[in-house]
Amino acid sequence: MPLKDLPPDAQPREKLLARGPAALADAELLAILLRTGIVGKGVLQLADELLAPPAQGGFGGIAGLLNANMAQLSRIKGLGPAKRAELVAVLELARRALAEQLAERAVFDSPAAVRQYLQLHLAARGHEVFAVLFLDSQHRLIALEELFRGTLTQTSVYPREVVLRALHHHSAAVILAHNHPSGSVQPSRADEALTQTLKSALALVDVRVLDHVIVAPGASLSMAEQGLV
């Protein structure tokens, strides 16, 4: 049903203005961003299809959609250049907002924001990515850098490179992070060994490893909270 045929209080934009964004379902919020559907498909139906599980041709929810790259979005009928740009812009704004938050106060004040920030950057990647959050002496964010890609082991992540980047940023501490494309956030034996190797290497230049966070779409795990750092 076209939006114009819905009762006024059921139309997403009017519903948001009257009741606030929390009252809207994911598809309704997405419909506001998309604004229009395509011939034969209303905007709410288009939004539902975009959020459907991957097995049904969708992106598996809001996180999957917003983490999709331009090439993936361009394959979806009804997502023209303007709509693709808007979706990518929303994700980038979310990243920058969280980065500002982490740069203004110690990461320990907002562990949930750290995990959200890392999920926005890494969770939807189809391959493993190893990244490092470099922190100042008050544990505020200096920078996030993706350093390695591919299967992560002690031999594929070079401690020397991590140490050099920490020295470059004059870091006092770091948070290690990587994604599991499989969807599981449970640390492997290789993850545990890599953490200890990097912890020892960084200790030589007086840089603390505060945590190693593993992320996947919709999930994250702190190895420090598990007693593994």
From TrEMBL:
Q: Which GO terms describe its biological process?
A: proteolysis
Which SUPFAM superfamilies does UniProt cross-reference here?
A: RuvA domain 2-like
Q: Does the keyword Protein biosynthesis apply?
A: no
Membrane-traversing stretches: none
Keyword Zinc listed? yes
- Tell me which UniProt keywords the record has, alphabetically: Hydrolase, Metal-binding, Metalloprotease, Protease, Zinc
So what family is this one in? Answer: Belongs to the UPF0758 family.
The protein's name in its UniProt record: DNA replication and repair protein RadC
Origin species, per record, is Oryzisolibacter propanilivorax
